[in-house]
Amino acid sequence: MTFARLKSAIELLLIGDNELPSxxxxxxxxxxxxxxxxxxxxxxxxxxxxxxxxxVIRQGPGGTYVRMPELPELDTDEMDIDRELCPALARxxxxxxxxxxxxIHNSEAQKxxxxxxxxxxxxxxxxxxxxxxxxxxxxxxxxxxxxxGYAQ
Length: 152
What we know:
The protein is mainly alpha-helical. 51% of the residues lie in helices and 6% in strands. It has 5 helices and 3 strands. It starts with a helix and ends in a 5-residue tail after the last helix.
């Protein structure tokens, strides 16, 4: 999803409510806050990295890290998250801006994140059974045992 499409989706969610700010910096600030929330709650496959750099938000599965998504610069830029998470991103931002439906937007975002996260867990468990994490210092299997889920 492009940045322009994300803004259109947010505008659609806000019909009859507050509007998306016309100030580009305010919109970018909302996207950045939503990215932080999203990356803290979901293991977006596109955000997994083995590089423990300054943009890392938290530890991921199998010795990986979850990095901060890149902010869009142009309306034509693709959002730097898994496509399935774009509706959650739009809902999170709408929850920040909505005067009347913030709770509804947040609740819907949480449903999307929960559904996505369960799919990712199945995917990662399959990868673990194939030995995909055997070369990482901390394996997905050992992190599951420690925390009742994969490392976060």
